[in-house]
Design a protein that fits this description.
2 helices; about 50% helix
Length: about 130
């Protein structure tokens, strides 16, 4: 946890930030997903342009097989765009989850974290016995 963003006992409005966890890795994942989405969109644009160009040249310099191959490449590029957008959405969700927001107006109590006693529950002994 990176921080508690409210003063215990202070009134909160719905949506006010309460807690935040360290988000450096999530920001990096989002940036990588955004770059992948941009690259996929550029590849799709280039593939669509190739299909359009091949359609005008079909019969002269481009065969039907060449056109079909370009159409498959364009469809594959569109699928890559969809996958990249989905990855970007997931990265955004992960980044959004680094901050916990107040669900309703109420006075939050002091945050309670369970205490864990790792020591055995025995009486102290005297040494030497």
């Amino acid at each position: 946890m990176e921080g508690i963003l409210y003063k215990p006992g202070a009134a909160l409005n719905p949506g006010d930030p309460m807690f935040r966890i360290e988000d450096t890795a999530y920001r990096a994942s989002y940036a990588a997903a955004a770059a992948a989405a941009t690259g996929a969109a550029l590849q799709a644009k280039a593939a669509d342009a190739t299909v359009a160009r091949y359609k005008t040249l079909q019969g002269n310099a481009v065969t039907q097989a060449d056109l079909q191959q370009a159409q498959v490449a364009a469809a594959t590029a569109q699928a890559s765009v969809a996958a990249a957008k989905a990855a970007l959405d997931v990265a955004q969700l992960d980044l959004d989850r680094t901050s916990s927001k107040a669900p309703s107006p109420e006075l939050p109590a002091c945050p309670r974290f369970p205490s864990v006693n790792l020591l055995p529950q025995t009486r102290p002994t005297r040494w030497p016995p």
